Amino acid sequence: MSYDEPLRLPATAIPDGCRDWTTGQAGVWSAALPPRWTFLRVRRSVAAGATTFALCAGGWAVLLGGTWPFLAAAFAVYVLWVLARPELVWAGAPALLLALAFQAPSQPWGVTALFVLVVGAAWAVVAVRLRARSAQYERALEASEGITAWLPDAEEPVRRGSFLRNLGLVVLALGVLTGATSGLWGSAADRRGAWAAAFFVAGLGATALASAWFGRHRAVGLRREPAPVLRVLVRDDVEGSTEVYAADDVRAIRPLFTVDLTSFDDDEDDDDDAEAEGTQTEDDEEELERLLEVVDADTPGPVREAVLYGVPFDGAEVLVLSADVDPAQPPLIEWSTGPVRPLSLSAGRRRIEREKAREAQSRQLEEQARELAGTQPPVAVRRWHAGWLDWLAAAVLVAWGVWLCWPWSTESGTAVWKLALVVVLGVYGAVRVPVKLAWRITADRTGLWVTGLRGPQHVPWEDLRSVRRRRFELKLRWRGDNWAVAAPHWGWLERTRGLVHPYDALAAELSAMRTDPALRPTGESTAPERGRPLWPLTVVLALGWVVAVMALR
Question: How far apart are CA 131 and CA 32, in angstroms?
Fold first, then answer.
């Protein structure tokens, strides 16, 4: 759906005297951002990958070089803090340098110097990033011109940080449990590795608890007194985050920052009870479907007027009062569930360019699917099945499982619990591999037939809601259920070489059929065309894995 102008926020919802955050003022604010090399915006996948690499390097240092397990784990957690939680670096860097100094006599001086250099350089980079926050704060505060207002739900209980707090406690307990059971490992090297894993998991738990505290502390601080307010424009992107624009950037040309938001409904508990009792109304189901349509949409949402409560800066906590997509609904109140993540001028432009390129490709593929269907005679049945990318994904999954489990399954005197874990991992692979190797989607005049472990599942055309490819995953969603399969995806290679991912082509063709009945197949598929149940192959693979593990003991 397209809109010619931003969705309007009712005048009664705008605090008296609230100023527009204009493009000029926002440009001054953006000029105060730190350089790109300060890790201002790092993707979650990149942060996770860098942390995992640091943990693997530390694990090898523990096993081969005699490094303390605590030190190896602490370095990996420190990498995560530098990229995702810089506030903790102020305490982590001195502690890590002190630990390096204590172990320096037992390590080659070159190794110690390298670690000290990395820790110190990262500390300096974080210092530059955190120092820039005060300048961002001052610029945004100047733009508000001192106008403040109480938050719309200032009397409501603060729920920020509850999820991370519970998650942190669980992960911390897992770390303690891992350390307590480290003595069950057979060799001294394995016990050192177990302690490194225990310290790392405990560090992740402590990080989640610290993040929960930061979020809750800042959320409570917003409610204590009237908060500075600014009029802005917002838009939901295709990833589920919210982009914030200057109040006069009605064409959404230059996003200033992104933030993850959530709304807390006063009647949430009542709704949960109603669902538990099976009394959800038809209107509730339609509303849920409407929300899922917005989430699954391959294009960003409409630009909406909003009021921003709180001073935006890197890592800030805010509240957003915005116009609802449905004009009949009252303004939407949303709390940030994560920190404000600023976008530099160049990063904002690249984001919009990628977004437009993705939209253009989706439209082009769907148009091509329509044109191709219009020039060819109608077909009785249309089928899609796993290809070489799916086979590659299955091979990677199998190789990873064998690499992980081979040392344990071939080791003499392996503990029973290790063998049990190897069997469980193998059974998981036996469930996933057949889907990757033998998935099939069959379209006929009645709808789609999607293969599964128990057999093909029928999805009538009127129940199909969306077919989307998101990063590595192809996902079909229909009324009451969904189905997904994943395969490798290289966006840069596809853009530079003009390649089309097979999932994109499939999604475009099915989307065209969904919206235009004239493009659908005209016949009715037979049982062999719909595919067979995958559970027999799963059973064979699982039994083969168990036999192989027992034979290698």
Answer: 10
Per the CB < 8 A criterion, the answer to whether 502 and 389 are in contact is: yes
CA distance 455 to 466: 22
Cβ proximity of 506 and 468 under 8 Å: no
Are 67 and 102 a contacting pair, CB within 8 Å?
A: no
- What value does the CA radius of gyration of the chain take, rounded to a whole number of Å? 27
Structure tokens at 499: 């390649």
pTM of the model: 0.74
First-to-final CA distance of the chain: 61
CA distance 41 to 177: 34
The structure tokens listed for 21 are 């955050």
Percent of the chain at pLDDT > 70 equals 86
User: Whole-angstrom Cα distance, residue 198 to residue 402?
Assistant: 23
SS3 content of the chain, % helix, strand, coil (to 5): 60, 15, 30
Q: Which residues are CB-contacts of 224 (< 8 A; sequence separation ≥ 6)?
A: none
Is residue 471 helix, strand or coil? coil
Grade residue 266 by pLDDT with cuts at 50, 70 and 90: very low
What's phi and psi for 507, nearest 5 deg? -60, -40
Going by C-alpha positions, the residue among 204, 219, 201 that lies closest to residue 162 is: 219
What is the b/e burial string over 458-479, where b = at least 16 CB atoms within 10 angstroms of the residue's CB?
bbebeebbbbbbbeeebbbbbe
